[in-house]
Amino acid sequence: MTAADGMQRVSPRDDHGAHKDRLSRTQLWFLAILGLPAFGVAFAYTVVGTYLPVLLADLSGPAVTGILIGGEGVVALIVPIVVGGWSDSTSSRIGRRLPFVLAGAVLMVLALLGMPLGAGSLLWIAVSLSVFFLGYFGYYTPYYALFPDLVPAAVRGRSQGIQGGFRSAGLLLALVGGGFLLSLWRPLPFAIGALAVVGVTVALCFGLRGRRGREPGTEQPSPGGGLRTDLSLVRSNRAIRYWIAADALWEGAVDALKTFVVLYFTRGLGMSLRSTATSLALVGVAALVAAPVAGKLADRFGPRRIMQVAIWGFALGLIPTLVTTNTLFLAAIVPVAFAAVVLMTLPYTLLMRLLPEQKAHGAGASLFGFAKGIGVLIGPLLAGLAITFSGRVPVGAFRATAGYAGAFGVAMVLLLASIPLLRRIKPAQP
């Protein structure tokens, strides 16, 4: 029996998910293999999103940086829709999803190696960013589709918790190590990011070699491709429509902060890159704990209930950045980061509960990428504009940080705007 086969034995003890059977070592190992790619991709993605703006700051202002990083959203509005439906209907010796995962990995690696080589050219960096985002969404859309393909509903929260743990580990290493590596040699964090993507992709392919023919839970989609399937899902399910809008706001809030947080510390508060990396290590440590906890709580109480609490903790925890530049507020990073990671771990768990069972998982994953694309498009752009205009405010934290505190204000507004939407998302399962 393979690990994936063993997963099928896990079942809830009641209809409300109050308790789930414990996972065996074989099942935990399978979930670990399935979650591992999130580590390498998160490391590379965080290096690009957090430290590439440092290179861009030498060539452009905050608004242009926000537009370039936010260009990810344009790619995300197109690529997931195409790749998700395509991966539902693809047939190959290595399965439906893995050909797209491999192609995405190649594009990401080429882009990561190319970015620092053109550090003096805004055009070169823009092209490299475009290639990276093409690869990123070409990779992540079919990768996320593997979860409903291979993981039973009873443990999908925990599967996302384990995946979120790996993602948080990649985030932690990128936040901490990226600053140190960048201070040593600017191409170094990007090169290591490329190696990480290669390593986890190879591990996934070998780990799934017993399940690479036809992933269970998928079927041949009807003619018309991924776009038609996505539109059908959106039209037929009001909860999915609310979910797309809410997830776009969550992603926008996170990306607004991710894009400008290093510049907030370095240019706004005058901290060194190494001090900034050390401070951001607290974010990664909190994330390592929060992701698996979030998954377990979601299987027990339902993801929506846990996310409602996390939103308030995340949003209210941003208030100190708007009223003070006293670095003592850095102590609040841990609980705020914990709430943020809980919020970002569970959206796909919630979406999986909204999708029809045994149908078009690639198309469902494309909706996840599409919502993320909207958020990435609006978050950095709004934050860049807010920084530009709030830098002209002659008082308080806005003046003291050269306007970079404005990014936190944008994130707070987006989070609070998502609360009524989340209340209206009512999955078939709690």
Topology:
Elements: H1 3-7, H2 25-35, H3 37-56, H4 62-89, H5 98-114, H6 122-150, H7 156-184, H8 188-207, H9 225-236, H10 238-268, H11 273-301, H12 303-316, H13 319-323, H14 333-345, H15 347-354, H16 361-390, H17 396-400, H18 406-423
Helix pairs in contact: 2-7, 3-6, 3-7, 3-8, 3-10, 4-6, 4-9, 4-10, 4-16, 5-6, 5-8, 6-16, 7-11, 9-16, 10-15, 10-16, 10-18, 11-12, 11-14, 12-14, 12-18, 16-18
Our count of helices gives 18
For this entry, what is the oligomeric state of its chains? single chain
Largest sheet: none
The CATH topology annotation reads as Growth Hormone, Chain: A
Number of structural domains: 1
Mean pLDDT reading: 78
Query: What is the approximate shape?
Result: globular
Rg, Å, rounded: 20 Å
Question: Helix/strand/pairing class, anyone?
Answer: mainly alpha
Characterize this entry briefly:
The chain is mainly α and 430 residues long.
Provide a descriptive summary of the structure in words.
This protein is mostly helical and 430 residues long. It has one domain: MFS general substrate transporter like domains (Growth Hormone, Chain: A, Up-down Bundle), CATH 1.20.1250. Helix content is 75%, strand content 0%. Helix 10 packs antiparallel against helix 15 (347-354). The longest helix is centred in the middle third of the chain and has 31 residues, at 238-268. The protein is globular and about 60 Å long. Residues 1-6, 8-20 and 212-224 have low confidence and may be disordered.
